[in-house]
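QA checklist item 7 of 12: single-chain prediction sanity check.
[x] sequence parsed
[x] length recorded as 236
[x] structure emitted
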Amino acid sequence: MSKYIISMADIIKQEELNAPTIFRASHPAKISVLDNCAFSLPAGPDFACPGATRACAECYAQRGRHVFPVVQRLVARNFIALNNANGDINKIYQMLLEMVPENIPLFRIHEAGDFISQNYIEAWAEVIKNRRDTYFWAYTRSFNFNYTNLTRNKNFALWASADNYNINEAKQFVRRYRKSGTKYAFGPWNRNIKIPDNSFICPATNHKLDMNGACEKCMLCVVKKRTHKNVVFLQH
């Protein structure tokens, strides 16, 4: 069991006593120089990644700054607040809407973590519909849910996180939502292996862009149908 899992489990147990009832956004440097540009949950199959595969053992969201207690406490409290909503779509929707800044140009759903229930997905679909001036995007391995209402939003881009262990499921998922612009996000990708056809490498992972504010500068993953190519995330 990794140090991340052990420490996250301990923090969740501690924070449950405080019964948090609101969500908190975060501001990962890669996404934007703006504050509150992302929402995260604890990473991993033990927490908020039901579709995690063996490839996720290399996940960045269980390393680096994600092991800092202040970061783990924030995502732990988000996780507890979501669980305490007991699947109430209206409650989750209100919590998310209050958390997403009204005038922010872009917002990453799950810089860590993933979609964990159908009601949670439906709540996000309503939030995005009511924040039409904001571009939202997400990568997912949670292929067993229905994303129809979410992908109907023109200001939302969905990517299927694909690896050697889930590639068949990812193919079915992309086929199901292709008309809404869903494409593959391959990774973590070995730098010594040729990337798939019709793909581009995330410029922050091959150092073509400075890591600070890279997503805000690139926008290829952020804006739906801005590119017809799939994205590859090199191991980093």
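[x] summary fact logged: The chain is about 30% helix and 15% strand.
[ ] second reviewer sign-off
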